[in-house]
Amino acid sequence: MDADGQGHAERRQGEVTLGELRITPSTILEGLPDAVVATARDGRIVFVNALAEELFGYTRHELLGQPVEMLWPERLRDYYARNMERSFATDHPLRFTSEAMGLRRDGSEFVGEMSWGIVESTGGPLLMAIGRDVSERNAAEKRWRALATISQNALAGADPAVLATDALELLRANLPISGAEVRLGHGAVLASTGLLTDEAMEQSIGSGDQLLVAFERDMNEDERHLLHAVADVLATALARLRGEERMRHDAVHDPLTGLANRTLLRDRLEQALARSRRRGGASGLLFVDFDNFKQVNDEYGHPTGDAVLVELGRRLQKAVRPSDTVARLGGDEFVVVCEELDEQTAVALGQRLHDALEQPLLIDGIEHRLSASIGIALGQTDPDGLLGNADAAVYRAKAHGRGRVELFQ
């Protein structure tokens, strides 16, 4: 065969010769970093490369000559077949890239990022599909988008219980776990999902709070990153929750004793009076003023005086009912708000407070004895008037010798 004949034969086989370099289309297609499937007009597979074998789980000999629809999920076959027919019917079909579903030999599906187009061959037009499995990439993007949403909600001040529930559902959907739980430092469960086991892993999420996770298998690196990211979001959200709770608490509580301050006292007193009006009873306000507290400050200093006030506040709280409110107005003045009192019960409560407060206090090895004058006022309306009447009763108690309980009449 002469040189022209040999070149003609090579061209028939689709070869290109560049000097000593000989290239065939199949060599190029085999070298691509993606799966390649070529389909004839009748829908039969005429070419697959090694990556396509790996992607779909078939050998080349099992695929060649078979209908390409075997690589498509059954629910999508009609739709994909119509698209293929339109591509072959178009004079100048466009090449495009899109996502398509693929079906593996084992029946599992995957999302493929595919480039499609018609190419001409010596045997007629072929539909060439080149692509890769992007299922895991899409799933990872979905996971991180969900995490980003939870993070944004955390920064926006979402309810921590709702946020924790969403975070655990994200973990349950994407990690090999049977259950998870967010447990606060004091033991309360903020959110939970699935079933925890005795071998559940505990991960600190700040301030004594815990994220407990029961694993079904060891995690890979991406899964560990997701778990740590969720833990960080929860830690941020719970820190914000505690910060807000602390600010709300500080706004209505005395910083020294932790008792209600004037703001919270006013609110509790108004609520008590409103309930008394509805029920027909009376609310009581007991004003406590210590007779000789200034001597403690003058003789032992303010730190000792503060310690005495803290202990006196504790004694007041122990002496009243859980539903009653003890407040510090400032200095050595305290107020107790009680509901459903008559005169006899109010005086008896005042005497109980008096007896509790006159017991010796031991601070830094030094015994202190204080007496208190207590004024009581009862009513259903006018919180300012009630406070003024109780204050007047205190002055009457002091005028009559101090260390007494007086009822405003």
Outline the fold blueprint.
Elements: H1 3-12, E1 16-18, E2 21-23, H2 25-31, E3 35-39, E4 45-48, H3 50-56, H4 60-63, H5 77-89, E5 96-103, E6 109-121, E7 124-133, H6 135-155, H7 160-174, E8 177-183, E9 189-194, E10 201-204, E11 210-215, H8 221-252, H9 262-279, E12 283-290, H10 293-300, H11 302-319, E13 325-330, E14 333-339, H12 343-357, E15 361-363, E16 366-368, E17 372-379, H13 383-399, E18 405-407
Parallel strand pairs: 17-18
Antiparallel strand pairs: 1-2, 3-4, 3-7, 5-6, 6-7, 8-9, 8-11, 10-11, 12-14, 12-17, 13-14, 15-16
Helix pairs in contact: 6-7, 6-8, 7-8, 10-11, 11-12
Name a few traits of the molecule.
disordered N terminus; Alpha-Beta Plaits; 3 domains; alpha+beta; 18 strands; Beta-Lactamase; 409 residues; five-stranded mixed β-sheet
Walk me through this protein's architecture:
The protein is an alpha+beta fold and 409 residues long. The protein has three domains: 102 residues, Beta-Lactamase; 116 residues, GAF domain (Beta-Lactamase, 2-Layer Sandwich); 146 residues, Reverse transcriptase/Diguanylate cyclase domain (Alpha-Beta Plaits), CATH 3.30.70. It contains 13 helices and 18 strands. The strands form five sheets. The protein has a five-stranded antiparallel sheet. A hairpin with a 5-residue loop joins strand 3 and strand 4. Helix 6 packs parallel to helix 8, helix 10 runs antiparallel to helix 11 and helix 11 runs antiparallel to helix 12. The protein is rod-shaped. The protein starts with a helix and ends with a strand. The N terminus is likely disordered.
